[in-house]
Design a protein that fits this description.
Layout lengths: L1 H22 L21 H28 L3 E4 L10 H11 L4 E2 L2 H5 L12 E3 L4 E3 L2 E2 L8 H4 L1 H4 L8 E6 L4 E5 L5 E5 L1
Parallel strand pairs: 3-8
Antiparallel strand pairs: 1-8, 2-8, 3-6, 4-5, 6-7
Length: 190
Amino acid sequence: MEYKQMVSKSLSLVFTMAVVMGSSQAAASSLTVPNTFTSGTATSASEMNANFTAVKAAIDDNNTRISAVQSATNSFQGFSSGTSTGGVGLITLGNLCNSSFTGSHVCSTQEFATSSYASATGLSGDAWIRPTFLTASIDAIIGIGMSAAQLTCGGWVSSASVNDKALTVSSVGKFVVQQCSNSLAVACCN
């Protein structure tokens, strides 16, 4: 009787795992359990192992997919190859990123601070970066206390005056406020 209870519990575990795996089908790989068992009938170790192997393969595949999404999230790509003054607008700055790293955008200080830097190589100089505001006048990551306009070339506008400034990041990760008239690369994130 113990053998049947053990098989029954094992089958319940396989079924539960299959339901859990199947319920997240939208973003997960599918699971096909090769063997179906009926209560009261004998099963073989090879059939049980085949089911567990199928469940393990689906879990491993989903782990790979999740890891790929996580590594793509908040991933600092590097500095754009092209440069621009600060007062050209976020679309132009974003296009510089996308030209250098397909699918990337202008990093925020939050993204930069929580990023993986694994793919960023050959950095030099400084690059424009978007502040992440805690309040209307303090960047949440670096604590610089200036208004949004003072950290973004007046909102990244082309009418930025010679005295307007924006936030930049250096190749070693130091944040500095610089003149919008400087022609710099852009910090790019995925």
